[in-house]
Amino acid sequence: MKRSPIIGLISYSKNIPGYSEGFIGNLDSYIYALQASGAIVVQIPALQDTAALQTIFTITDGILLQGGSDIDPKYYHELPHEKLGPISSERDVFEIAVAQMAIQNDKPLFGICRGLQVLNVAAGGTLYQDIPSQISKDINHNQKEDGSNVTHSIRIDSQSRLAQIFQSETAQVNSFHHQSINKLGEGLVVSARAADDVIEAVEIPNRRFILAIQSHPERLFKTNEQSRQLFLEFVAAAGR
Asked: How far apart are CA 201 and CA 194, in angstroms?
């Protein structure tokens, strides 16, 4: 009997008040969405030496890059903007290396929020470090509402894989970011934008699955069919 696909979920570290040790883990919404889509989830701390990447690629069928902190602009050759948020260079180095290996080896990769930005930087692209001061204030891309609520729409390229998965050229999404793609990375194509032209999704055509979205479908998984289909398609691609 064929086994379930193994998805490597890159974990993040966080300081806990009152503890000298840090915490490494993931929000359970990512794990639930992957497991409910038929995957076996392996959490991978973003603290390992990048030499461990080959082993990680051997034991996993796909990689999920989750949301989190801003990316250090030195990795796309810019100085910090005054609105740059907290960064983790250690995490940046590891995740950029993961994304580059996924591109080179056609490993299914799903990027969510920060994961989209990591994929773009890994492909040689750049970022707007702060949407309100560098692009537009027309849409609040960092909503105050709970993640189970959608707050704005996106328009989807009809020829994109995302449109095929969503079975639509529009979608309603949640939004928790203040950075976004500026210069598009090599090989990436834009598959969705918001009304203010902020890039909301990218993909690499003719790959098993290399796709990233700026919103958080894991937080809509239980109530939104498009979000469920996105995870199902990723896990299915990893299993092929």
From this structure: 10
Active site residues: 113, 216, 218
Measured from the Cβ of residue 133, the count of other Cβ atoms closer than 10 Å reads 13
Question: Under DSSP, is residue 136 helix (H, G, I), strand (E, B) or coil?
Answer: coil
Q: Are 120 and 185 in contact (CB under 8 A)?
A: yes
Q: Which domains does the chain have, with CATH numbers?
A: 6-239 (3.40.50.880)
Burial string for 20-55 (b: 16+ CB within 10 Å, else e) reads eeeeeebeebbbebbbebebebeebebeeeeeebee
Tell me the two tokens of residue 8: 């490597």
10-residue mean pLDDT profile of the chain (240 residues): values are 90 75 84 98 83 88 96 97 92 94 97 98 98 94 95 98 98 97 98 97 97 98 97 97
Q: How far is CA 113 from CA 4, 174, 217, in A?
A: 26, 11, 10
Q: Does the predicted model carry a pTM greater than 0.90?
A: yes
**Residue 21: what pLDDT?**
72
All residues at 6 or more sequence positions from 100 whose CB lies less than 8 Å from its CB, including other chains:
122, 123
Distance, CA of 146 to CA of 88 (rounded, Å): 25
Residue 92 host element (H or E)? helix 89-105
